Amino acid sequence: MTQREVTDQENLTWTCVQAYAGLQGKAGEKAAEISESDEGTVTVVCTPSGQAQTVRLKLPSNWLEETSDEELLEKIKQKR
User: Fold this and answer.
1) DSSP string, the chain
2) What's the domain range around 57?
3) Which superkingdom does the taxonomy of this entry point to (predicted)?
């Protein structure tokens, strides 16, 4: 399961992972296919290291490679 970690200005470290990313084989492929919207976005769940609450984001399907840490932190901030 591929994930990304980013740290915000409050020194919270957020671990972000695409929903269903942990599924293996055919089930994982099908879940990933179904979870991508018609607009090309996927659900990403970001969990904080501290007391803050987990957030769910809609990001482009290539978010791991193309979304900068700053953009990811801004999206998290908007959802909090």
Assistant:
1) --EEEEE-TT-PEEEEEETTTT--HHHHHHHHHHHS-TTSEEEEEEEESSSSPPEEEEEETTHHHHS-HHHHHHHHHHH-
2) 3-79
3) Bacteria
Res 36: pLDDT: 61
Per the DSSP assignment, residues forming a β-bridge with 18 are 44
Residue 57 sits at φ, ψ, to 5 deg, of -120, 150
CB 43 within 8 A of CB 17: no
Domain count of the chain? 1
Q: 48 near 13, Cβ under 8 Å?
A: yes
Which range of 19-23, 48-52, 75-79 scores highest in mean pLDDT? It is 75-79
* Length of the chain in terms of residues written: 80
Over residues 39-64, the pLDDT tens digits come to 789 999 999 997 779 999 999 989 99
